[in-house]
Task: structure prediction
Amino acid sequence: MVHLGPLPGAPGFDDDFDNLIEDAVTDAERLEAAGFDGLMIENFGDAPFFADDVPKVTIAAMTRVVSDIAAAVGVPFGVNVLRNDALGALAVAAATDAAFIRVNVLSGQMATDQGPIVGRAAEVARMRRSIAPDTLVLADVFVKHATPPPGLSLEQAVADAAGRAGADAIVISGPATGKAPSLPSIRKARSAAGGLPIVIGSGATAASATRLLDVADSLIVGTSVKERKLATNPVSERSAATFVKAARKGKR
Result:
């Protein structure tokens, strides 16, 4: 995971965009050197987030950063525009040849700290068809930092995302950044996903990688490969290499 610092327009932006880009490219290069199969790039530093329609300056800035990362690495990469701007992510993906986007709420509705967020699967499917037909959609179900509607089961939400919303893979996360989902919840998602890949969206560590990969297909990792295990810190080359070594053992 390449967690971008506050972008232009965000409250925390420090007016040094060149340094932000340099830091992002360095993180990407370290992850590639450690052996990661791909990268995900997101505007992690832009909190507090807009719900599902970020300012145009955010899309412009992300396109610039992602383009520079793409020029520096040779592995596939994807984009997540927080909190849930899937259409913006598709725009960045189309401009940078990203392999995938991550969508926190593709279908249904979740209660979040940005207020209620409603999935826009119909718009995503049509825009993808128009500008980025080869870009995969990784859809979170019961995404972290959010609460599902009463009465909706994880299995039903996964089935809806997989069968009706156009997801190409299902992302299952824990309750918050750095927190892993339970093994039973991963198994429930697997049973309802109709054969789609299951991706762990938070909380993976070198110690848990093998166990998680027994029930999932891939892992998104950020916090545990950062210096001092803080999501806002740079990637630790040592921690990243240790994680990849552990994950490779889990996929033998």
